[in-house]
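User: Just a sanity check before I run the rest of the batch. Below are the structure tokens for the first item. I only need the designed sequence back.
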């Protein structure tokens, strides 16, 4: 039906603000006479409309971004509250209006499955501030249908806000048991004691889920003392959890003892910032035969050498289960672990340099199932020798289908690399500052020789001529210039 589709996501970023505001009067039409009279008694001017609401519109809502709803409600109130009211009366009317309409939305959105809580300028106009201490049946039913919940930097964790935050977590723990995707970004502002309370309630929320499949959490910028509460709670989801993303948690050794119980498709560790004077805990003792069931390991963000041993241990313990690894800066121990323990790797994205290139080649030589390789140089890296480049070409397994090539080499060495390369690539991405028509001809010759290259992406300072590109497209169907203009950088 068209009506459910049109009203399923009316408070999203794709809809202009004025149109979101115009939704509110339609929702107000759905209120009872008593609720409308309460609004009128509190200086809300309601337009006389003899046409009743055709549908109970909130029941069609599937996605609710509270930030956009709150703003739409706020601007509607500004337009409808009598202009001669003073600020105190205005705030009181805004509170009453928010309370009535917000609770109506929450209690009637019986089809809601995605709830998104994010920050906005005025804390006083948040839909969740209207959450009653005793939830009526409709709100309980709405919470019970949720399958996605995003709570991102909602409010600072302060004494003033802590009752609202804990009440929300408590109600969600009581009534929302079917959340499959949960994203929590904790606000870094606040008292440490209150943060501990939030983690206790968060643990209850996690424990109350039946089949949590995807969980993302961003820790505040502080030492992660909350982990003793967090990880045991997450262990309650070992049978269902497939995606785990942990952002700004630095003491990785505290995570490692819990990993054997998970059956993860993906473990994603992101480090934006490392606190000063912070040292990770000692690596834990793992019994003989311990194995991590992780298929995809992604590590990104801040370069932090003290965590390298933890990363290497995760690779070692995951072993043949690993199919994909993506990491930027790492040491030779990590590269050695890839070659020694990950024979089933099909995708590798890694950064290497002159000093560790030999370790990279040794690992690469053992990856007999590799299909995708993204190899990147470090900033200001020393240029590789011709012998190193040729050895790289010889080491690439014949199974490779896609290569993203961004190493410190010159044009001549790259041409020799193509002559030596035995793998039949279907896609080649190159980053070469002095790429020219001659090198493009070498690529075309490689494409003719292998008969498999269908796509070429290049990033170069110099420009190729249109004539050369036109001839190349006769052999390589897709050629894309991915060079960034200086003005865009």
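Assistant: Here's the designed sequence for the first item:
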């Amino acid at each position: 039906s068209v009506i459910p589709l049109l009203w399923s996501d009316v408070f999203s970023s794709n809809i202009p603000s004025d149109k979101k505001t115009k939704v509110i009067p339609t929702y107000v039409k759905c209120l009872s006479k008593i609720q409308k009279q309460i609004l009128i008694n509190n200086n809300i001017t309601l337009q006389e409309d003899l046409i009743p609401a055709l549908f109970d519109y909130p029941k069609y809502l599937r996605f609710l971004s509270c930030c956009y709803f709150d703003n739409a409600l706020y601007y509607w109130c500004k337009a409808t509250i009598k202009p001669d009211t003073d600020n105190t009366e205005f705030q009181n009317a805004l509170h009453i209006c928010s309370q009535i309409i917000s609770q109506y939305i929450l209690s009637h959105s019986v089809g809601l499955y995605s709830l998104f809580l994010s920050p906005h300028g005025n804390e006083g106009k948040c839909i969740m501030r209207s959450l009653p201490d005793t939830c009526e049946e409709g709100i309980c039913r709405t919470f019970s249908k949720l399958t996605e919940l995003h709570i991102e930097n909602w409010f600072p964790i302060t004494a003033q806000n802590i009752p609202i935050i804990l009440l929300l977590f408590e109600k969600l723990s009581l009534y929302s048991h079917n959340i499959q995707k949960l994203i929590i970004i904790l606000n870094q502002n606040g008292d440490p004691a209150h943060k501990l309370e939030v983690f206790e309630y968060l643990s209850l929320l996690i424990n109350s889920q039946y089949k949590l499949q995807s969980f993302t959490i961003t820790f505040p910028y502080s030492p992660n003392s909350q982990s003793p509460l967090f990880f045991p709670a997450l262990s309650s989801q070992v049978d269902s959890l497939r995606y785990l993303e942990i952002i700004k948690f630095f003491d990785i050794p505290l995570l490692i003892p819990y990993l054997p119980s998970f059956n993860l498709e993906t473990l994603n560790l992101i480090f934006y910032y490392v606190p000063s004077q912070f040292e990770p805990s000692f690596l834990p003792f793992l019994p003989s035969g311990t194995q991590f069931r992780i298929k995809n390991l992604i590590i990104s963000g801040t370069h932090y050498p003290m965590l390298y041993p933890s990363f290497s241990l995760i690779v070692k313990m995951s072993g043949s289960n690993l199919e994909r690894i993506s990491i930027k800066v790492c040491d030779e121990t990590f590269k050695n672990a890839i070659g020694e323990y990950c024979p089933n790797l099909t995708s590798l994205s890694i950064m290497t340099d002159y000093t560790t290139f030999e370790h990279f080649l040794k690992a690469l030589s053992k990856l007999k199932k590799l299909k995708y390789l993204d190899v990147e140089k470090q900033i200001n890296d020393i240029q590789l020798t011709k012998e190193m480049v040729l050895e790289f070409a010889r080491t690439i397994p014949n199974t490779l289908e896609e290569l993203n090539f961004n190493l410190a080499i010159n044009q001549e060495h790259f041409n020799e690399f193509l002559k030596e390369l035995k793998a039949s690539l279907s896609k080649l991405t190159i980053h070469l500052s002095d790429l020219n028509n001659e090198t493009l001809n070498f690529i075309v010759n490689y494409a003719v020789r292998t008969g498999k290259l269908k796509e070429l992406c290049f990033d170069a300072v110099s420009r190729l001529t249109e004539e050369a590109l036109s001839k190349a497209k006769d052999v390589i169907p897709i050629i894309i210039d991915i060079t960034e203009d200086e003005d865009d950088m």
